[in-house]
């Protein structure tokens, strides 16, 4: 692929890449490159049981994206070989597995995904409640009590770090 690109860039006139010329002589990047990947993704999407299948039961966009960032992407060849494992359509019994990591969804991910927002909301609630119980007066004694939001901030960040470790344990375990 790199030699072909170098040859195209060296020539003075534009000509189609030899690998993207079809049997009938037409040039179709869409037909040779995009269509096989689209058909594979479409077959995988049809295999998800209308969104009810488990996240680990079918390959989704993240798995395809992860594949193109891995070294095994180079095994696909140029143009992509139609019989490659990556372009294999899912069958009823035998399927192409996930590429690396399978996320397990829990309600704790709700906190972890939006932890900055949750921390902000909890700390604002704490500070505004303190101000309300001091009858809306902001003086030195109110500010001293509002400073108790500091330890609460550290506790909430510690909880977020613990959730990172717990919820991403599968990713840490499978990482190279």
TrEMBL record:
1,3-beta-glucan synthase component FKS1-like domain: from which residue to which, for each copy?
1-81
> Under which name does UniProt file this protein?
1,3-beta-glucan synthase component FKS1-like domain-containing protein
The domain of life for this entry's organism is Eukaryota
Stretches that traverse the bilayer: 114-133, 153-172
List the GO cellular component terms.
plasma membrane
Q: Which UniProt keywords apply?
A: Membrane, Transmembrane, Transmembrane helix
The GO terms describing molecular function are: glucosyltransferase activity
> Which SMART domains did the record assign?
FKS1_dom1 (SM01205)
